[in-house]
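Attaching the record inline, Q. Sequence:
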Amino acid sequence: MNNLTDIIAAISDFVCGYPLFLTLIGGGLFLFIRSRAISLRMLGSSVRALRDSMNSKGGDSGQITSIQALMSSVASTVGMGNIAGVAIALVVGGPGAIFWMWVSALVGMSTKFFEGTLSIMYKGKDREGQTQGGMMYIITSAFGEKWRPMAQFFTVAALVGTLAVMQSNQLVESITTVITSPLGIPDTWMLRTGLGIAIAASVGAVVLGGIERISVIASRIVPVMVCSYFVVVAVILVLNIKDVPAVFASIVSNAFNFKAGLGAFMGVALTGARRAAYVNEAGVGTASMMHGASSNTEPLREGFIAMLAPAIDSGLVCTLTSLPILLAGNYADAEGVKGLTIALGAFGKLLPGIGQYLLMIMVFCFAFSTMFSYSYYGQKCSNFLFGSEYIKVYNWFYIVSLVIAAVIPLGVAVSIMDLAFALMAFPTMFTLIRLSPKVLALLKK
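Structure, as predicted:
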């Protein structure tokens, strides 16, 4: 088992190093520059598009509204990556990694604009002739059937990447850390299996209802959980206001710490980009599946709405997570791959007696919202590869995987997710860059 873990980690570390950094950050910067900084220049248009979508009935070529697509997409990104992922980034890369997550958010907004626009421009048909959206359909519709192998490559990677391995694993971690361990209940594989079964049953009650039920629940839970998280962190910042300026100074100074050497600088940047890829999923291709289900018929409006997601998850929520951890300082002495344990310890230290419990409530909301949306991504992939008749089989496979994820080591879960997301990013960014002239021509009109 240890040898297999080491092999998976080694492959993940290589692929998610410079190859992923150049693909996501380099490709994203290309789109950012070519669109003349659209994530900054057209931010007002994004807000107006979101407002207009609330009053628009859309067309009949989708299953959900644009606002539901955005909330469901945010539900998949505002999850455990925003808590456990940020903690891991701080342990591995220090405060400077947060700065590069901010950079990734700004660049990712441009990438998400192209992704959302193309998801409406290039919809496809499944085996039953139903209109579908997603990166696999963008590839086959825009490039033709000869590119189907690349679409299948993306879809297979997406099937693995959207199994919610980290979400189930860290949700169990939060329960054992905050509830069972203080009660003297030993952390055994039997306990984790039981908790995994309970999680799987709860998720199954929603995902078996299809995209309509998933989107309705996501559109209700996401605004509430983000606002609640903001309030909790705001209280922590007010109580520690004198230390907040030093925290922001450490983020910026450590991001450009050349004194430690160029290798150390690149390590921090790579860590921030790698965690940001998992957090905001810009350039990974998942958002195209959700926005491709939108009934909106105006590609640019969908692109503007999609552009808001990285600002919410990587920009706002990740910052909200990082500040308490940096204030507590408990990340510096962590050994090994530590995620949620670091965040729970920080909140417990800064809000004694209640902090860890408040965060655990947030963890439940974040984790479940992600697991709901990820199940839909998997359904889309299963439909593309095998046909709609196998979606029910996939749903049960997805539910069972949540139980398995509850008992595997965190290091394995992180490596599997990172590797799958990287393999999704390569065909996605190639497609976005190649089709970017089509989007820019539409924008120019």
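Confidence is low (pLDDT under 50) at residues 258-265. The longest strand covers residues 124-125.

More tomorrow.
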